[in-house]
Specification:
alpha/beta, Rossmann fold, Hypothetical protein af1432, 2 domains, five-stranded parallel β-sheet, 19 helices
């Protein structure tokens, strides 16, 4: 299916392949499980506008507008195939053409290759930023098949909003585009007036903290999280951000504004559990295959909820796009065997890689219906030596360098 219809989301292709497995043991165990697995697929559909909708300016704005600046026709064709059903897509194959197109009708997102003929990608980004299209007005995703990740990470800190190396997995490219489109300022229903949010960093992300505290309290009240999880998790995440290196993509975590937002929204990672049957979540014995599939839908459910809130109040609550990334991807594994998308390595959003380790530490140190809490030493050993392939090795190394601090945070110090 991926070969014949590359525009179909990879997660749908994988589901169809599993449904068509000749071996019954490899298929879903029941129709109920299939229904649960399908729950999250509405997450990435256009809201309020279908692919068959008209081409009025308001409809195009509702879909999100993307300019692809890429000189390789094959890569550009793949990007178009992946995006055209969800976004209004325009193309340019060189910097000069792109500059004219972008300044004439600014998009929500520009996907810009570094090695363009004539004007380079970084030069193009600098010109559009100088023309007044700052990050609030237009997001930029930098791409390159030549520069190392460290160099691309530097560009994303200085002028772009994110970066991706080529060749990329389709699901990774779609994830980056979706996240950046979600960050665009909300527009009023009756005009194109931008509802400008307060400048990032002028205050702590209080609205996001309030929302995440509410979610944590609900999870605690329903016995799905331990008391005090909100305070501990935000502190774990801040400690990890400080301990990670200031190289490559990890440089983003050295921006205090971003780190504050990530810490504020981190406790919402399991909000999707509120949409899963409670008797399944609290079952004292081992879950069967059908029950595990149902529980795994909490990643898609949580992300869908947060995307919906972001679309309604994204200009008023900082970080909902980051929260949605974390909710969807915190069960992805570094070796690619996680869920729901089977992302591997750096395909997994950085925010999710940080929060997943902090969340596992918190879960292992907390009592659960089916087991007692583990000690600090047991937890460190399990994360560092007994969970091969689960976590980003760089995040694990940072955790080990400050493991005593995690113990202090757990003890409320």
């Amino acid at each position: 299916m991926r070969r014949v219809r590359p525009e179909v989301p990879a997660e749908v292709s994988d589901l169809v392949s599993r449904l068509m497995e000749p071996d019954p043991e490899m298929r879903f165990p029941s129709a109920r499980t299939v229904s649960a697995a399908l729950t999250g697929f509405t997450l990435w559909l256009p809201h309020g506008v279908t692919p068959a909708a008209g081409n009025s300016r308001q409809e195009r704005i509702g879909r999100g507008r993307v300019v692809l600046v890429e000189d390789d026709p094959g890569v550009r064709a793949l990007m178009v195939a992946l995006l055209q059903d969800q976004y209004d897509v325009r193309e340019a194959e060189d910097g000069e053409t792109a500059l004219t197109e972008i300044t004439r009708d600014p998009p929500d997102l520009a996907v810009v290759d570094v090695g363009l003929p004539g004007m380079s990608g970084p030069e193009l980004v600098e010109k559009v930023r100088s023309a007044g299209l700052d990050s609030e007005r237009m997001k930029v995703l930098i791409t390159s098949g030549d520069l190392p990740a460290e160099a691309l990470g530097g560009l994303s800190v200085s002028s772009a909003d994110d970066f991706i190396s080529k060749p990329f997995a389709p699901v990774e490219f779609l994830s980056r585009v979706r996240a950046l489109i979600m960050r665009r300022p909300a527009k009023s229903s009756d005009s194109d007036t931008v509802l400008t949010p307060p400048p990032v960093g002028t205050t702590r992300p209080v609205a996001a903290e309030t929302l995440s505290l509410t979610v944590s309290r609900l999870l605690a009240e329903t016995q799905l999280a331990a008391d005090g999880q909100w305070q501990r998790l935000t502190r774990y995440v801040r400690a990890l951000c400080r301990a990670l290196p200031d190289t490559g993509s990890y440089m983003q975590l050295k921006d205090d504004r971003y780190a504050d937002v990530l810490a504020a929204v981190a406790p919402m990672y399991d909000v999707g559990l509120l949409g899963v049957p409670r008797h399944t979540l609290l079952k004292p014995g081992r879950l069967d295959a059908s029950e595990r599939s149902i529980v795994q839908t909490h990643c898609s459910i949580g992300a869908e909820v947060l995307v919906g809130v972001a679309q309604a109040y994204g200009s008023e609550v900082q970080g909902l796009d980051v929260a949605a990334e974390v909710a969807r991807s915190h069960h992805e594994r570094w070796d690619g065997t996680g869920y729901p998308d089977g992302l591997i390595g750096e395909e997994i959003p950085l925010a999710a890689r940080v929060v997943s380790l902090a969340a596992v530490y918190e879960a292992l140190r907390s009592r659960r219906p089916h087991r007692p809490p583990l000690s600090h030493g047991q937890t460190v050993k399990l994360i560092s030596t007994e969970s091969e392939g689960e976590f980003d090795p760089t995040v694990v190394a940072a955790f080990l360098s400050i493991a005593p601090r995690f113990e202090q945070i757990h003890l409320g110090k």
